[in-house]
Queue: 2 jobs
Job 1
Amino acid sequence: MTTILSRRPQLQHLTAQLDELKQRGTYFHLRVLEDMQNPVCTYDGRRVINLASNNYLGLTSHPKLIEAAVDATHKYGVGSGAVRTIAGTMRIHMELEEKIARFKNVEACVVFQSGFAANAGTVSSILGKEDFILSDELNHASIIDGARLSRAKIKVFRHKDVAHCEELLRELEKEPGRKLIITDGVFSMDGDIGPVDKLADLAERYGAIMMVDDAHASGVLGRNGRGSIDHFGCHGRVDIQVGTLSKAIGALGGYVCGSRDLIDYLYHRARPFLFSTSHPPSVAATCIAAFDLLETEPERIDRLWENTRYFKTELGRSGFNIGGITTPASESPITPIIIGDGGATMSFSRALFDEGVMATGIGFPTVPEGKARIRTIMTSEHTREQLDQALETIERVARKVGVLA
Ligand SMILES: *Cc1c(COP(=O)(O)O)cnc(C)c1O
């Protein structure tokens, strides 16, 4: 069957593009994990130190979360059976939303199937074609897609450039449409923190809606991982807070926090909420248990930051370009090793893997052309020995493949 399909001409343009990727050295295959998502695990049959996951707090394999998922499955089954608005809202979905709202200190919360769905579904539904979106140039793809779907006019400001954002707002002052300012709390490819407080000032001054995507900040920044709004003391000043349940929380999903009316509106208008089935009960139960852990095991977050400071300081000392963040008081557990060329980055990543370090190469279109990088992510569960071994390997392999002098 497959051989017959592969000979059909209809999709030949895809094959041509894949050939081009192969020529440029940026073609990849998916590395397959054969055990749990842990600091040391097995991909493609090889034991590696894992510097690539978003499992910041090691919760993907936490016994209490596993138990919560199994218990919920026995009690409520494996699926919810429908979209939320038809028949698929289970008691446990409501419990999770109430828990997140309390944790984030907001009136209400709605959970989506993913962070991607939360962003895209929210941005696309709250604005129309007469409105404006002011978006940081490095904002996540799901924000960009949501902005396009909304048909609002998109104004991109330079990365973290508050003055540029204000300039754009001033140009729009006479426009009757609504304005939405949106930034990532922590930027996923560079690991730096968005100027949430200063953008919130602007939003107030210009009457704009303020939205923050805290996918990489939730469980990481702020008291007990409450996120960038808590980190900046901006409670009550951000209209829309998005978070993910797929990274530090260890399971899957995304959520939006804000006023009761915002959430009620999304119940009625956000298309992923209306047209895609809700989480299995096991996922909701897992997430509830994870938010409990943020309160009862805050030492995980302390360990995450200790590891982050150590790893970032040592990497910077080796002479890598780690994205301008060289101070030991690093901004987040994400540390890019910027190489530039896509092909060189991918072969560096492959060489690292062969030597026992899993650190994913990331190139265009995830990051701009010429900014290809190895992205490393710390977790609370890496031991000092594992970090030292990873650092030694990274430096040695970098010299061998010629990306470090
Ligand atoms: C990962 C990520 C998302 C998407 O979250 P998922 O739950 O994985 O869909 C959204 N925004 C940012 C900034 C992210 O890094």
Job 2
Amino acid sequence: MNTFQFVSTRGDTQKVDAPQAVFQGLAPDGGLFVPERLPNLGLDLAQIHKTSYRDLTRKILKPWLPGYTSDAIDSVVSNGYGSGTFDYPELTPIKSFGTRHFIELFHGPTLAFKDLALSLLPHLLVEGRHLMGISKNTIILAATSGDTGSAALTGFANVPETQIIVFYPNKGISPIQKKQMTCQTGGNIFVCAVDGNFDDAQTLVKNLFSSEKMKAHLAECNGSFSTANSMNIGRLVPQMVYYFHAYGQLVKCGAIPAGTPVNIVVPSGNFGNILASWYAREAGLPVNKFIAASNKNRALTDFFSTGTYDANRDFHRTCSPSMDILVSSNLERLVYHLSGNDSKLIAKLMADLKKNRRYEVPQELKTILQHDFSAGFADDAECCREIGAYYEKTGYVMDPHTAVASRVLSKYREKTGDHTPALIAATASPFKFTSTVFQALFGDCGGKSDFELIHELSHQTGLKIPHQIDGIEKWRPLHSDLCHPTDAAKYVRNAISRGEH
Ligand SMILES: *Cc1c(COP(=O)(O)O)cnc(C)c1O
């Protein structure tokens, strides 16, 4: 296979290989690193199920991340997906009900899909630094809508020559998500609540990256920034694996003959997970439609129907907080690829977004986007009805994000009559959002806290409490920092100097 490099979506950055792209996180011109061409992996779809999840990961990462040696990838996978990290040997088991197939992506350390990529990212970074001969302190910046934070902290805790700083919205994440983050141990981690929402946190991270003052400060202390958000290409590549793996499972159990297309439904926020499934299709996975599901923050839904991305809208706090996002960063990558790598266009659209909080793609591009993608939304009431109704029908318990996807799939099927077998990304454990789930299933929570409801939910449904959060009510918070977005630079400088000791 011919090798390739990574370029910036905005065209004003030197090409780099994969270790550099992971190391830098964001391109210096403010764009996102993308492969200059999309490799087809030529996997034999009838045979995928004979390959273990870990071997499949090696098979996909090696050609997709040129610049890493084969040995380096082997060690990334063995260290990141060591035994005991995930609850199942197949990492992401499938639960099928008719033509709906839930890929359960939440059996890792923090009970959300981000564990699949964030268990590998620290190792990609360390191996990459080693290959490049760079000895520098890497400061990982991450904004989180709830789940990236704990998954990134768990992955990066105590990784040598690395500090991690996580910013989370002060209001809006679930009590269990908050506890997971604020109780994380590790000598190199910093957790800070931000007065604002996820978009404020993501914007402050992007601004820190481009700040000249910060660059000078980093140079002084031999440090450099990278990011654990899905803006980092190292997040997206591991996420391609579970779509191939799930497809193999469907072939194995006879749900589909090898080679037939499926639909893929993803509860979407920053658009990273669904983009990984699109990369999987470019790499050879047969997909008919990608269905992006949103909650009441429906900027994506409107974008796919009108061709205008408009972040000038009210922000809603919903019961699926990890999707409470108005600016979906990874859309930039999709639009880049579908425009035929038109970096001039992307630079212009992103300048529009920055200036006016909106951009509009050309008509031909809108048609191309609509050919592959469909998008829909479900509000909190629909989401809760879906959790309750699906449990009644099947006994299956969904978390609110998965329920949004399931409801949006029903609406899509009603509207289009397209009943192609669907893979639904089940992105979080219902035990992370107990008050919403309990209420949807059994009505009143009787004034019980999210922590008490962990036991109630287990008792009433017969589901086992995940060992990852067993006893969480007794964990002692270690982090209580809070800052305003305008003080973030100061916070980061302090964290860096504390990390040097
Ligand atoms: C992060 C997250 C999402 C959104 O994923 P994106 O890749 O940002 O689109 C959906 N559900 C859960 C549970 C999440 O943690």
